[in-house]
Amino acid sequence: MSDLTLIVLCAGNSTRFQHKAKKQWLRIENEPLWLNVTKRLSGFAQFEKIIVTAHKNEIGYMQNFDDDYTYVTGGETRQESMANSLKEVTTKYVMVTDVARACVPKSVIDNLLNEKGVDDCIVPVLDVSDTVIYNENTINRDNVKLIQTPQLSKTEILKKALNTTTEFTDDSSAINAINGSIKYVKGSIKSKKLTHGDEIHDMPSLKPASNNFFTGTGIDIHQFEDGKKMYLGGVEIPCDYGFKAHSDGDVLIHSVIDALLGAAGAGDIGEFFPDTDPKYKGADSKLLLQEIVEFIYNVGYEIVNIDLTILAQQPKINPFKKDIKKKLSEILALEKQFINIKATTGEKMGFVGRKEGVAVQSIATLKYYKWK
Ligand SMILES: Nc1ccn([C@@H]2O[C@H](COP(=O)(O)OP(=O)(O)OP(=O)(O)O)[C@@H](O)[C@H]2O)c(=O)n1
Ligand SMILES: C[C@](O)(CO)[C@H](O)COP(=O)(O)O
């Protein structure tokens, strides 16, 4: 039984990182960075509970990776994410780290744990060896400290300190503001925070993403409905019937979405856009695909190719293939040469052959985003 909980904050947007993938989702061989960081830290101390704070769009996906952690939905800011996570903490002490500090060494954790008990917050810091200018004046650099994470706090004090509308950039500043006691210990240059894209190269111990490929299939079927507009692959097909559906019924896009989600191991379209949700009534499927493509890139993948087969006795598909490919190429951010569209009839057999509806089968291949 331990009196310590670990919180790994992973709910950020990586706005300043400016890579195709969010930093928490870069693959270290086959492991997302957030999992790699969490596993490493969990081996450095005895934790009663490990909380992983996830972005609201990613929590469901994160939960697929490891059952041992408690996943909490983060907020709009680091502090909101902290507040949400602290609600799950029942131990006397809590250690909080940014996933962005990807290579924290064990020595830093030991330095924190060696001081546990007296002060309200224990903080790893670095001294500054460069000259420091503040408002154009050179100041005494001995008075300047660079604050890092993980930080070790008394849970109740941290909860109290963060019960405010004032935004703090770290836990120690919040505790300092309520006159809590702070103990500074030796941090490490290895604990550098990954903020801007090029800083990833300052972390040579992180292994590159594996060269694996991932495939997923998708199938969708929709029945015809008279008097509706028909959309296939985001293109309006001139027809006096469309598809019966909760959304705009773009059976092709739905099939591609499932193939992409399948390749990423991220479930299916219904988990992202439930057909019971009024929000998606009549939804433009192009926007749904856009959202999925953004998700696929955010969580560390690149699209290699897609191939799809439209099973339709009617309407004739060939005249629209070119437009559909162009539209898909735009939405997927994928060159046309990597998109293939095939069409076949049902030879007048089955529901396709009887002209009751259309089916589309897709296959998508993904690879990890190469950040190194
Ligand atoms: N709403 C937020 C914002 C940030 N964080 C986490 O707080 C840490 C420090 O944030 P930062 O390094 O700035 O990451 P991002 O917020 O993702 O980056 P940016 O500010 O560039 O968008 C990160 O581990 C980040 O995941 C969080 O959990 N919830
Ligand atoms: C918490 C922190 O890492 C301590 O140095 C830092 O303040 C986080 O800043 P960010 O702007 O949220 O990345």
From TrEMBL:
The record marks 16, 23, 246, 345 as: Transition state stabilizer. InterPro entries: IspD/F, IspD/TarI, MECDP_synthase, MECDP_synthase_CS, MECDP_synthase_sf, Nucleotide-diphossugar_trans. One of its GO terms (molecular function) is 2-C-methyl-D-erythritol 2,4-cyclodiphosphate synthase activity. Gene3D superfamilies: 2-C-methyl-D-erythritol 2,4-cyclodiphosphate synthase, Spore Coat Polysaccharide Biosynthesis Protein SpsA, Chain A. It comes from the Bacteria. Bifunctional enzyme that catalyzes the formation of 4-diphosphocytidyl-2-C-methyl-D-erythritol from CTP and 2-C-methyl-D-erythritol 4-phosphate (MEP) (IspD), and catalyzes the conversion of 4-diphosphocytidyl-2-C-methyl-D-erythritol 2-phosphate (CDP-ME2P) to 2-C-methyl-D-erythritol 2,4-cyclodiphosphate (ME-CPP) with a corresponding release of cytidine 5-monophosphate (CMP) (IspF). PROSITE patterns: ISPF (PS01350). It catalyses: 4-CDP-2-C-methyl-D-erythritol 2-phosphate = 2-C-methyl-D-erythritol 2,4-cyclic diphosphate + CMP; 2-C-methyl-D-erythritol 4-phosphate + CTP + H(+) = 4-CDP-2-C-methyl-D-erythritol + diphosphate. Keywords: Isoprene biosynthesis, Lyase, Metal-binding, Multifunctional enzyme, Nucleotidyltransferase, Transferase. The record marks 141, 193 as: Positions MEP for the nucleophilic attack. It comes from Arcobacter roscoffensis. Pathway: Isoprenoid biosynthesis; isopentenyl diphosphate biosynthesis via DXP pathway; isopentenyl diphosphate from 1-deoxy-D-xylulose 5-phosphate: step 4/6; Isoprenoid biosynthesis; isopentenyl diphosphate biosynthesis via DXP pathway; isopentenyl diphosphate from 1-deoxy-D-xylulose 5-phosphate: step 2/6. Its EC number is 2.7.7.60, 4.6.1.12. This is Bifunctional enzyme IspD/IspF. Belongs to the IspF family. In the N-terminal section; belongs to the IspD/TarI cytidylyltransferase family. IspD subfamily. Residues 214-372 are annotated as: 2-C-methyl-D-erythritol 2,4-cyclodiphosphate synthase. Residues 215-366 form the 2-C-methyl-D-erythritol 2,4-cyclodiphosphate synthase domain. SUPFAM superfamilies: IpsF-like (SSF69765), Nucleotide-diphospho-sugar transferases (SSF53448).
